[in-house]
Every structure is written in C-alpha cells, then in structure tokens.
Amino acid sequence: MNVKELVDTTRPDDGPLALYCGKCGSVYSLKAGLQMREYAEKCCLPKRCPGCDKDTGFSGLCHDCHDAKRFEVATKVPASEYTGWVAVGDDYFDSVASLIERRQDEDAPLPKYVWGTTETTWDGLDVESALENELENSFEDAIDHVTDMDELRAFVKAWNEKQSITSYWCDYKTAVILDEA
C-alpha cells in the first residue's frame, strides 16, 4: 500500500512519529510497536482468510475455516451414541432424530455433523438482587426498611424450587457425526 510517514518538522532527525495509509488516511502510531508498519501497509488491502484465501472483509478466519478448526479439535461422537440436544447454526433440536425429521420435512440435506450442547438450569430469582434493582431509585439503605424479609425469602425459595427452566448452549468441544444417522 501507499504508506506515508508523519514527521515532526521541528525534529526531523527523530524519524517518523506515525504512519498513515495513503489511500484512506488511517493513522498508525509507531509508539504502539513495530507491527504498526505492517498494519499500515495492509490497511486497504482486501482482507483474506488465512485458511482458504476467501475475501472476508475482516482479518482472521472466515466462518467455514473457523468452524473447521473447531471441528478438528472437537471430540467426535457418533450420532447413535449421543443423547441430548444438538445445535446446527442458530437452530437447536431436542435430539438427533428431531433434526433428521425436520430436515426431511424441509427436503434439506443433513450436515455431516452438528454440535452437541451443554445444559444449564436456572437457579431462580435472587430476592436481594431483585429488591436492590427495584429500590435503586429509592433512598440509600431502603432495603433495610422492607418488612417481612424472612417471609419473602422463604416464599421465593419455595417458588424457586418449583422452577425447571433449562437452557442449552452450543458445545464446540463435541461434534456429533451424522454420517451413519
């Protein structure tokens, strides 16, 4: 690229203070380190994925190469041995069978693999946090003036025990292989 140097004209012997891209004008301070020259030189060049050389518009791996790298290090589990929720893209399914059924209904191909999931269970409502939030615009120490706090804690504790909210999160450490599904 067309890198230009910014020099203090009153002290030209000190060398450049910074570099800037001759195309877009982005400035790179040399105080930040020597790699700034490399950044300035690459500033307006097309951003390419180092894995496949596809133009990405950003530095780093494209989605496909990033996913392939995750797959490379993941534990591979055959679909027949996996139980639980699976994730493919933004979609979650309660089982491999549900995923297969949906793909068949949509006449969509099955991927070679999907990601396993991890499960988290909601701990319930935190009485102190909820009251702090509600009383945030009140006077200082307003929470100390709430009556029957022990009764409220007991009620919420019993209510929390009745809750069964479970969430599933994509687990990139577990690849569920669908080839034999």
Summarize model confidence as the mean pLDDT.
Answer: 90
* Estimated share of beta-strand residues: 15-25%
* SSE order, one letter for each helix or strand: EEEHHEEEHEHHE
Number of helices: 5
Number of domains: 3
Largest sheet, strands/sense/barrel: 5 strands, mixed
* Overall SS class: alpha+beta
Could you tell me the number of beta strands? 8
CA radius of gyration is: 28 Å
Estimated helix fraction: 25-40%
Query: Which spans have pLDDT < 50 for at least 5 consecutive residues?
Result: none
Tell me the distance between the termini. 51 Å
- The coarse silhouette is flat
Strand order of the largest sheet: 4-8-7-5-6
List the helices and strands and how they pair.
Elements (H helix, E strand, L loop, with lengths): L2 E5 L8 E6 L5 E3 L5 H8 L20 H11 L1 E4 L7 E3 L2 E3 L2 H10 L7 E9 L5 H8 L14 H14 L3 E12 L4
